[in-house]
């Protein structure tokens, strides 16, 4: 066509015709516009965030990946409507908008990460490491594929994630929970009370009168659903998981010790911390001269003031060894047997002289010997994953041939478990929880959604394993007749009557105690024994359940109250209440502060990101969002 146009324009007639044609085209564009030609370029934009955007394709990919992960975890399909009702679509959009906003902030600040730095950070991530603690390339590739990325794309995505984390770390750096809040929680946890109490047994109010048949029938009719027989199902289950396949006894002791050293600070207490002051000198000569002055009695903070250094750069406060940017500096600081000065340490920024002011020793609530069994089992479970996958494939191959679950299990050297009667709460026919039921509520929910003879999908275990199951029988729920439960109805009526009488008796005793009578005198009148509980705190203890402990603290000191217990009614008197003096330097106070930090950091980050998005400006294409998820929205 282009050649034809070129030939046609060789003479004046052709040129005239071409001019007329082009004129018509120009006029048509001037009338109808050219916007539609370019409008398609922004049709794929779901959200605008400053100069950046979230495309429909990016959102759809993130949404589908997250939906797939949830479906794998729940072992069932999740509709878009269910995801919308749970707020998944908006959560994904909010995350992507935040990422775009932080990416723009990173560019504004000129932040960047080299490929070498990114690779080093990825290699240090626990999630990409194998049981031996080293980077596992196959595990990395699997996680990248599960996330919908190529390896190159996943590395690029992680590089951006590290830059965002750098910004958020700066935003929350130095944020500490208010001392007043830490003190309030400390006092709440450590308030202790001395409780005098008596137990009122049902026999105290005597046996209730035997109800007539008419009264029993009326009670039954009013509470008919209480006496309904539940549906029970007979299940056959086969569990293959890291915890069942792993062999803890084969794990070397040195590997267990290594894991304990890595996790003890996070899981079992607080590591040693040191109160450190630090000055960086440009030359070794300056560092040596300063060290000599400090050893002679000079004050390091006064020295820093003379050098016009920022106090925050000098006073590091209480830090762990891992908090030091240069491991050599941290090693020197923690090598000191007590408070003192380190020799100059050479770093990329100069010679560092550190002074340890005080030491907060490590405190762990589990020794290595106490933690060894669980850590050994954990390592064994991680090592067992290849065997779990092999058994999964082998069992699936057996089931594909039409074998029953028991036959499939026998073929691979395993045994199934049979549960004769399971209700929808995971209890047996006596109403007690079935011990060792694999995957508990998840298995029960799946089994009650299935039927006899159905080839079911597996149910996931918490440690990444699988539970196969078959429904072998169903005993339907039914309403029991009055004659079947007549004795149970009579027992329930007598129990209700006794509880009402005991409650009235307890109220009477509480009134006497609040009027000034001693609990010992009242106990003698009633004929029960007075007991005392010392150092009662708002924490679990074997002699009282949680509801009773809550009641102890609902009542003011020198006042009485009552609570229901298994063997009757408990009436108590709060003899005294003690709250210890708050010590901000105590291990418990520091632990509370550490526990509060994540909440404060999250709140600060939420405000920071909200302010950043407000400054950049965020515009959401609501129609594109609806189209991307396929979920209908309320108008």
UniProtKB/TrEMBL annotation:
One matching Pfam family: Rotamase_2
The way this protein sits in the membrane is described as: Single-pass type II membrane protein
Domain annotation PpiC: ranges: 271-358
Q: Name one GO molecular function term.
A: isomerase activity
* InterPro entries noted in UniProt: PPIase_dom_sf (IPR046357), PPIase_PpiC (IPR000297), PpiD_chaperone (IPR052029), Trigger_fact/SurA_dom_sf (IPR027304)
Q: Which segments cross the bilayer?
A: 12-35
The record's keywords, sorted A to Z, are: Cell inner membrane, Cell membrane, Chaperone, Isomerase, Membrane, Rotamase, Transmembrane, Transmembrane helix
Task: List localization entries.
Answer: Cell inner membrane
Tell me the protein family, please.
Belongs to the PpiD chaperone family.
* Entry protein name: Parvulin-like PPIase
């Amino acid at each position: 066509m282009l050649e034809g146009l070129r030939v046609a324009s060789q003479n004046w007639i052709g040129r005239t015709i071409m001019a007329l044609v082009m004129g018509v085209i120009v006029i048509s564009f001037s009338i109808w516009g050219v916007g539609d030609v370019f409008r398609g370029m922004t049709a794929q934009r779901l959200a605008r965030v400053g100069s950046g955007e979230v495309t429909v394709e990016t959102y759809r990919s993130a949404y589908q990946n997250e939906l797939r992960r949830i479906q794998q975890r729940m072992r069932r399909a999740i509709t878009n409507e269910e995801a919308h009702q749970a707020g998944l679509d908006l959560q994904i959009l909010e995350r992507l908008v935040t990422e775009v906003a932080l990416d723009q902030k990173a560019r504004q600040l000129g932040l960047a990460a080299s490929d070498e730095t990114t690779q080093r950070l990825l290699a240090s991530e626990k999630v990409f490491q194998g049981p031996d603690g080293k980077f596992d390339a196959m595990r990395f590739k699997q996680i990248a594929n599960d996330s919908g990325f190529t390896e190159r794309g996943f590395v690029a995505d992680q590089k951006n994630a590290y830059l965002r984390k750098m910004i958020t770390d700066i935003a929350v750096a130095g944020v500490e929970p208010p001392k007043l809040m830490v003190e309030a929680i400390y006092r709440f946890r450590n308030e202790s009370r001395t409780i005098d109490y008596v137990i009122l047994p049902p026999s105290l109010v005597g046996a209730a009168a035997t109800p007539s048949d008419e009264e029993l029938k009326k009670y039954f009719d009013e509470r008919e659903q209480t006496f309904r027989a539940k549906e029970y199902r007979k299940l056959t289950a086969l569990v293959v998981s890291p915890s069942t396949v792993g062999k803890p006894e084969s794990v070397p002791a040195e590997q267990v010790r290594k894991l304990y050293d890595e996790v003890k600070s996070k899981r079992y207490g607080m590591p040693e911390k040191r109160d450190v002051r630090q000055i960086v000198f440009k030359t070794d000569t300056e560092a040596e001269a300063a060290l000599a002055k400090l050893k002679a009695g000079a004050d390091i903070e006064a020295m820093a003031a003379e050098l016009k250094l920022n106090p925050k750069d000098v006073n590091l406060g209480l830090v762990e060894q891992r908090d030091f940017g240069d491991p050599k500096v941290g090693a020197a600081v923690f090598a000191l047997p007590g408070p003192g000065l380190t020799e100059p340490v050479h770093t990329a920024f100069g010679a560092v002289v550190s002074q340890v002011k005080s030491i907060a020793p490590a405190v762990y609530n589990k020794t290595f010997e106490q933690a060894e069994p669980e850590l050994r089992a954990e390592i064994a479970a991680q090592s067992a994953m290849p065997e779990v996958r092999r058994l999964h494939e082998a069992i699936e191959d057996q089931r594909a041939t039409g074998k029953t679950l028991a036959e499939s299990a026998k073929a691979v050297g395993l045994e199934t478990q049979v549960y004769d009667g399971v209700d929808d709460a995971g209890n047996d026919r006596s109403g007690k929880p079935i011990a060792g039921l694999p995957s508990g509520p998840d298995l029960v929910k799946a089994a009650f959604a299935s039927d006899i003879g159905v080839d079911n999908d597996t149910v996931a275990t918490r440690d990444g394993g699988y539970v196969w199951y078959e429904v072998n029988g169903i005993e339907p729920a039914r309403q029991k007749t009055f004659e079947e439960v007549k004795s149970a109805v009579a027992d329930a009526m007598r129990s209700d009557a006794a509880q009402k009488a005991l409650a009235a008796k307890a109220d009477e005793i509480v009134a006497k105690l609040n009027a000034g009578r001693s609990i010992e005198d009242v106990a003698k009148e009633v004929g029960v024994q007075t007991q005392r509980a010392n150092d009662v705190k708002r924490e679990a203890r074997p002699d009282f359940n949680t509801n009773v402990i809550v009641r102890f603290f609902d009542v003011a000191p020198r006042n009485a109250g009552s609570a229901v217990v298994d063997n009757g009614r408990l009436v108590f008197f709060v003899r005294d209440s003690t709250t210890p003096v708050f010590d901000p330097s105590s291990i418990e106070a520091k632990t509370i502060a550490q526990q509060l930090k994540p909440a404060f950091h999250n709140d600060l980050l939420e405000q920071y990101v909200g302010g950043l998005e407000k400054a950049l400006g965020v515009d959401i294409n609501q129609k594109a969002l609806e189209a991307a998820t396929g979920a209908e929205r309320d108008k």
